[in-house]
Amino acid sequence: MSPKIAVVLSGCGVYDGSEITEATAALIHLSRKGAEVKCFAPDKPQMHVVNHLTGEPAEGETRNVLQESARIARGSISPLKELDVNDFDAVVFPGGFGAAKNLCNLAVKGKDMEVDPEVDTVLKGFHDAKKVIGLSCIAPVLAAKSLPDGVKITMGLPPTEGEENEEFPHSWAVPAAEAMGAKHENSDKPCNDACIDKENKVVTCAAYMYSGKPHEIYDSLGAMVDGVYELLE
Q1: How far is CA 150 from each of CA 119, 122, 232, rounded to the nearest angstrom?
Q2: Can 137 be counted among the known catalytic residues?
Q3: What are the Cα distances from residue 224, in Å, to 30, 91, 202, 220?
């Protein structure tokens, strides 16, 4: 039987939603493996809207996370509150700043972040049921906060002597995740591997935490999906 896998999106677009390359790569890899996929997203306003041409907030503009996520899911998507852990074998969270702004508030509060209550319920529900959780890019901070201390994750490489690495421009998130109790395992370019925590059934990959080329990000998501399937066996 084909595994049933939920994919949780956080909007549409890297700066204020799901990273589109990561989200579509996850969906393609899951499709190729024959998974039965259902997409979900919180039905709530985004933290803010970013003009992706300028990278600046669009003042006075509001968008809904579920409605924006429907762009990636081609309209086939449900509110996150309807996700029942009993209906699925695994859940996957693609990255993008929506994960840090709409699924939690890492972008604002750093290591003192809070996870959206619906997202927290999903993560803890899958973990308690000993079902597989996959996360890419910056999304592993969700596992760092919601799951037990010691959960193993990767988000690429940490800052070097406190300095940001231009190939890993968001490495500031690594010490934040460690401060929340996660154990970080390094993944260097081209980041085409995944970190597999067999005890907690968590699989993570660096994806666009590394400033890679689109095919490298695609391969990174492929490694994460392969890891999810390894833990499903």
Answers
A1: 20, 19, 21
A2: yes
A3: 10, 12, 10, 6
Predicted pLDDT at 162: 61
Angle at which helix 20-32 crosses helix 214-232, to 10 degrees, equals 50
Tell me, yes or no, if the pTM score tops 0.90: yes
| Both tokens assigned to 74 | 């081609």
b/e for 86-107, b at 16 or more Cβ within 10 A? eebbbbbbbbbbbbbbbbbbbb
3-state secondary structure of 113: coil
Burial 60-71 (b: 16+ CB within 10 A, else e): eeebebbebbbb
Beta strands in the chain (DSSP E): 4-8, 36-41, 50-51, 56-57, 77-79, 90-93, 132-136, 152-153, 183-184, 195-197, 202-205
**Which has the closest alpha carbon to 47: 97, 95, 96?**
97
Give the per-residue pLDDT at 1.
80
For residues 63 and 60, what is the distance between their CA atoms, to the nearest angstrom?
Answer: 10
Which residues contact residue 93 at a Cβ distance below 8 angstroms, ignoring those fewer than 6 apart?
7, 8, 10, 99, 103, 133, 134, 135, 136, 139, 142
The pLDDT score that the predictor gives to residue 200 is 98
Tell me which of 104, 137, 191, 205 is the catalytic residue. Answer: 137
Give per-residue pLDDT as tens, 33-85. 999 999 999 999 999 999 999 999 999 999 999 999 999 999 999 999 999 99
